[in-house]
Design goal:
Blueprint lengths: L1 H11 L20 H14 L14 H8 L16 H20 L8 E5 L3 H12 L3 E5 L3 H11 L2 E2 L4 H4 L4 E4 L8 H4 L6 E2 L11 H8 L3 E2 L2 H4 L2 H11 L3 H9 L1 H15 L3 H17 L14
Parallel strand pairs: 1-2, 1-4, 2-3, 4-5, 5-6
Helix pairs in contact: 1-14, 2-3, 4-5, 4-11, 4-12, 4-13, 11-12, 13-14
């Protein structure tokens, strides 16, 4: 599911990449990070360039440096594009602005209340942008110290655990792990918009239908959080940091395009996003071969 999400994310973002995802199963608190990530690097190297790995949840630029000891097929390195979190967060911020415009006719976030779940790298940068835009923040994190740090930086209120779901707000921005829109949480949400940086926010697709029925506007996660892979693509393509941020700005228009498809086709937004991705994938696949493939003569 993560690999499919990456494929669709790259397509929607207009990047010339397929999609894949690597998961390392283990204790993130391990002290043997060099051994672990060098082993991962050797596996990535064995794929011969078909897969490029990069920083994500639970990893850091220093981990990617360990990977780089074994393979060149890694992005997000210190001294290059580095931590993708600022670009990811900026893309989510632009998605939230577009979502606000769609919902209320203005993309101003001044005075809007945002509940933000997850105060890690992306959540922290996003909180700073939201605060600068005049939003009022309520934050939570499994690590109380991270939540307190973000609160100190952004004048946010801190709530614990599941209280974030039932907190009344204008916008819910999930920026932790996936599956958080589910049968348990969907009944207690008191927001008008869901738009955040977490992957696979809908536990099941039917939860997107339920959000639609409840008139809670949902911005598909892989559209909103494409800034990270934009940053990775920029490193591979030799972009400057400024160009990566400009590309992430385009997420605003992409989000509005998804809402247009949803309205025109009469479908939930998660279906509309898939249709946009599939149209782009189909267009690219049609260009793969523009001449007949003649059979080779036997030798």
């Amino acid at each position: 599911r993560l690999s499919r999400g990456m494929t669709y994310k790259n397509a929607v973002a207009g990047l010339n990449l397929g999609g894949g995802k690597a998961v390392i199963i283990g204790d993130n608190r391990t002290r043997n990070r060099e051994m672990l990530f060098r082993s991962h690097g050797r596996f990535v190297e064995s794929l011969g360039g078909r897969y490029v790995t990069a920083e994500d949840v639970g990893t850091s630029t220093s981990d990617m440096d360990f990977v780089h000891m074994e393979t060149d097929y890694v992005a997000g390195l210190a001294g290059k594009s580095g931590d993708p979190s600022p670009v990811t967060a900026h893309g989510v911020f632009r998605a939230i602005q577009a979502s606000a415009f769609q919902r209320w006719g203005s993309d101003s976030l001044q005075g809007k209340t945002v509940t933000l779940q997850g105060c890690g790298n992306v959540g922290r940068y996003l909180a700073k942008e939201l605060h600068a835009a005049g939003a009022k923040l309520v934050v939570s994190d499994i690590d109380p110290e991270r939540a307190k740090r973000v609160a100190a930086e952004t004048e946010a209120k801190v709530v614990e655990g599941d209280a974030i779901y039932s907190t009344k707000a204008d916008i819910f921005a999930p920026c932790a792990l996936g599956g958080i829109i589910n049968d348990k949480t969907i009944d207690v949400l008191k927001v008008e918009v869901v738009c955040g940086g977490a992957n696979n926010q809908l536990l099941e697709e039917r939860h997107g239908d339920i959000l639609e029925e409840k008139q809670i506007q949902y911005t598909p996660d892989y559209v909103a959080n494409a800034g990270g892979v934009i940053n990775v693509y920029g490193e591979v393509a030799g972009w400057t940091s400024e160009r990566a941020f400009r590309k992430a700005d385009e997420i605003y228009d992409t989000v509005l395009g998804v809402f247009d498809i949803a309205k025109t086709d009469g479908v939930p937004t998660y279906v509309a996003a898939d249709r946009l991705a599939e149209r782009r994938l189909k267009a690219v696949n049609a260009m793969v071969r523009t001449w007949p493939q003649w059979p080779r003569s036997a030798t």
